[in-house]
């Protein structure tokens, strides 16, 4: 793995050819009122609702909204969150994200997420699944920057094609990456590339093994991982449908999952999150209210 920092698009470098040149930059600070959304700068159809506080003032639950509901050819979304020390933010979405079938010119459909988490701050990144429609052409980037004693729990669930309609990913292209840096040093990097040269991964034993839903859950860094936490997570994986496994990579817990059903995978991840959250940040899980709707 390369430790060279990947360049991410900024607000000034979003391609002018995009159909939607949307960006969202959030700034969270700590005050006597707890964790506060101090700044919210956005362009295009990408914004958040006023934060909710079901756990009290110190933890802000934020719902990320993209009214068009998905990406078409040429769309480019950039999401960035910047926290002050000792803030706690949980970000989720009200529904699945979508990347629609690409136009004949195969212009990329792009989304980049960058989360900057300073010392003593906590970020929980828990979006709903992303559905990649047959013949989409997308590049999805998640970059997590942790500093000092910052902690992170996050997941990514991706559905290739429309399995409920018996439609696979077809000739689609997808380039996904999820990476975590701690104090500038690359600690974890996951990448999945599906194109004309690697399409065999969809069915291959070393790939998705015919499962259209792929998921990744990450949590850490832990000062110490208790063995009963790992054992509990592994028991959840064994009880679930599909193929799932838990590993410890240095101070991080990594759960990878393959399935034919995104709803079942979300339930598995939520169940694991309920165990990981108190283990990592000493807080009982409090599911966002939007998940119940």
UniProtKB/TrEMBL annotation:
The keyword Chaperone applies. GO terms for molecular function: nickel cation binding. Keywords: Chaperone, Cytoplasm, Nickel insertion. The gene is ureD. UreD, UreF and UreG form a complex that acts as a GTP-hydrolysis-dependent molecular chaperone, activating the urease apoprotein by helping to assemble the nickel containing metallocenter of UreC. The UreE protein probably delivers the nickel. This is Urease accessory protein UreD. HAMAP family: UreD (MF_01384). Required for maturation of urease via the functional incorporation of the urease nickel metallocenter.
């Amino acid at each position: 793995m390369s430790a060279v920092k990947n360049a991410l698009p900024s607000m000034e470098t979003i391609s002018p050819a995009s159909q939607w040149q949307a960006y969202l930059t959030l700034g969270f600070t700590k005050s006597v009122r707890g964790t506060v959304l101090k700044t919210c700068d956005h362009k295009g159809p990408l914004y958040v609702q006023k934060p909710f506080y079901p756990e009290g003032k110190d933890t802000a639950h934020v719902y990320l909204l993209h009214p068009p509901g998905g990406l078409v050819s040429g769309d480019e979304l950039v999401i960035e969150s910047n926290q002050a020390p000792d803030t706690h933010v949980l970000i989720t979405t009200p529904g699945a994200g979508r990347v629609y079938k690409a136009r004949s010119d195969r212009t990329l459909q792009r989304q980049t997420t960058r989360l900057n988490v300073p010392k003593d701050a906590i970020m929980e990144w828990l979006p709903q699944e992303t559905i990649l429609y047959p013949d989409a052409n997308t590049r999805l980037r998640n970059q997590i920057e942790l500093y000092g004693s910052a902690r992170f729990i996050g997941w990514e669930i991706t559905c290739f094609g429309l399995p409920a309609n018996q439609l696979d990913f077809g000739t689609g292209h997808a380039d996904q990456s999820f990476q975590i840096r701690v104090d500038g040093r690359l600690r974890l990097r996951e990448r999945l590339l599906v194109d004309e040269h690697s399409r065999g991964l969809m069915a291959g034993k070393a790939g998705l093994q015919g499962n259209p839903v792929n998921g990744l859950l990450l949590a850490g860094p832990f000062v110490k991982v208790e063995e009963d936490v790992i054992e509990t997570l592994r028991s959840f994986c064994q009880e679930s449908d599909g193929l799932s496994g838990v590993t410890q990579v240095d101070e991080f817990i990594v759960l990878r999952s393959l399935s034919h059903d995104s709803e079942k995978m979300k339930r598995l991840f939520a169940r694991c999150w309920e165990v990981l959250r108190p283990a990592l940040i000493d807080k009982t899980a409090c599911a966002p209210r939007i998940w119940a709707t």
